[in-house]
Amino acid sequence: MMSYKLRAVLIFVLFTFSIVSCAQEQTRKGVHIVLLAGQSNMVGAGDFDELTTLDKERIEKVSNRVLLSTNGNEAKPLSYFNNKPSEKYNFTKRFGPEIFIGLTLAEANPNQEYLLIKRALGGTSLYGAWNPDWSAEKSNKVEIGDLKKNIKLYNLHLNDIAENVAGLKSKGKSYKFIGLTWMQGEKDTNAEVSAKSYRNNLRKLVNKYRTDLKVRELPFVIGQVNVLPRKYKPGVDLVREAQLKVGNSDLRHAIIETSTDTTWKDFPKYSDNTHYKAEGQKRLGTAFAQTLIHIDKKLNGKPFKSVTQLKPDEVIKFRALGITNATYHVYVPPTFNPKDKLPIIVAFSPNGKGLGILSKLKESANRNNFILVGCDKLKNGMKDLVFEKRMEDEMLDDIFKNIPHDTNRIYLAGFSGGAMRSYQLTTRRKETFAGILAYGGWLGGNDYQNKPYQENMYVAMINGDNDKGANKWEDIDAKNLRGRNCVVKYFSHPGGHKIAPTEVTNEAVSWLFKSK
Predict the structure, then answer these.
(1) What are residue 484's phi and psi, to 5 degrees?
(2) Quick check: 306 and 289 in contact, CB under 8 A?
(3) What are the C-alpha distances in Å from 139 to residues 20, 86, 245?
(4) What kind and span of H or E run contains 482?
(5) CA torsion, points 10, 16, 22, 24, in degrees to nearest 10?
(6) Where are the transmembrane segments (predicted)?
(7) Are 486 and 458 in contact (CB under 8 A)?
(8) Contacts of 352 by beta carbon, 8 Å cutoff, 6+ apart
(9) Is residue 349 within 8 Å of residue 361, measured between CB atoms?
């Protein structure tokens, strides 16, 4: 029988090991950093004392692993900030969306540390004070008062971030930026020049953060403004629409949509019809955090571990091994059996949205019984060509290694720039490609006519009758490919530059499969 002393020693060792393991796990993950930026509703005017006792206890419970740095101040455990009571806000404990961003993230990831870095100032414009390309001329057009006319909020936020990151490094902590949350735009609705340029300015802003922080995949969540029209009547609709378009333009983006119903039931407001009360801030912060979690799942997927992860008649997202964070979606038809080794079609879109092109071809996968893969993130206009090539290779290596398929029936597909990518991949990849489905795409022009495209492929060129660009190069490209002993067939459909209807895709796929 184990002695009392030996048992005590064993318990102590196990307990110590558990603590060390937990600490090592947190160190391995590093500190997750969330950036918060905007104007008054990002500052926040929630009355902390209106929160329930349960909410306050939840906040207290996670505050030791969620730090908050606001407007250049030292990072402190998550909590309210002091407020000087006024006629408008007659309370002393004030908060913004940061409280429930931190709380929601921390509860979803119990072993993770967070750092929230917030910079916000009420009544400031993206056209002026928040503009990363700040100029006195622009700022003077829209800002009111010397402070707001001269402040450069983007630069200040970058300084805040740099100081906090330096603090983490000095403590030997690693870190990862997991998102930028943006609650701003009310000010820009007031003037024609700022409202009409808001969409372009918002794109510039998020791209500048990504460039300056060197985080090309930084998620971006927009809180949609819902103020009443003021000085410039069309301004609210223009800014709201701009936010919608930017929020829905990229896999890395999302938007928290709001209602303009003046009962403000979605995010409760004060009687000024502008600023969110405690419940509104609670819902806003929760929505920001939940959206960040959703984007993370959407962007990252899970590494492939076993063929059992593939589910018949379901789309499953995977993350390729490597440094580029490449992701792809796999659809297998209802009859899928990994032992059968079905044909596989790997598809690319011009905007890097693999799920979108997959949805266009999914019905054909069922009818023709093939595995379909839609590739994310690879898109037109990628500036870092070395990184782009590495992403292509990490993604395709992962797909062909893990997804069971007939190695003699590997096909590529793409729309527009995705079709061009499919052609170019055959010039350097080691796989033997059986064929290509090229929707509204061409080799790339005169400079791409003499490249070493793979020989003996079957190529279906699928163009709209009114697709001038694709039809211009159709015969030229076909001649080039036939010179490499490829078999080329044209398929047409009514319309312009778009993916063909399912019946045309079925016809093209049937021809490809019968040819091999």
Answers:
(1) -105, 25
(2) no
(3) 52, 29, 25
(4) helix 468-482
(5) -120
(6) none
(7) yes
(8) 251, 375, 376, 377, 378, 379
(9) no
Beta-bridge partner residues of 70: 118
- C-beta of residue 126 within 8 angstroms of C-beta of residue 185: yes
Domains and their CATH numbers in the chain: 28-300 (3.40.50.1110), 307-515 (3.40.50.1820)
Per DSSP bridges, beta strands 113-120 and 31-38 are parallel
Is residue 329 within 8 Å of 317, Cβ to Cβ? yes
Other CB atoms closer than 10 Å to residue 467's CB: what's the count? 21
pLDDT digits (tens, 9 = 90+) for 142-156: 999 999 999 999 999
* DSSP for 115-133, written as a single string: EEEEEE-TT--TTTTT-TT
Dist. CA 79–CA 67, nearest whole Å: 9
Phi/psi class of residue 284: alpha, beta or left (left: φ > 0; alpha: ψ in -120 to 50)? alpha
Running DSSP on this structure, what letter comes out for residue 309? G
Question: Rounded CA gap, 222 and 184, in Å?
Answer: 8
Token pair of 23, please?
A: 């600490």
Element (H, E) at 10: helix 4-29
> For 32, what's the count of Cα atoms within 13 Å in the CB-facing half-sphere?
24
Distance in angstroms (rounded) separating the CA atoms of residues 111 and 95: 25
Reply yes or no on whether the pLDDT at 376 is more than 50: yes
Q: Are strands 458-464 and 487-493 parallel, antiparallel or unpaired?
A: parallel
d(CA 418, CA 427): 15
pLDDT tens-digit profile of 51-89?
999 999 999 999 999 999 999 999 999 999 999 999 999
Q: Which of 469, 465, 474 shows the shortest CA–CA distance to 501? A: 465
Please give the structure tokens belonging to residue 101: 């961003």
Q: Which sign does the torsion angle of CA 347, 351, 357, 359 carry?
A: positive
Structure tokens at 264: 């403000």
pLDDT at 29: 61
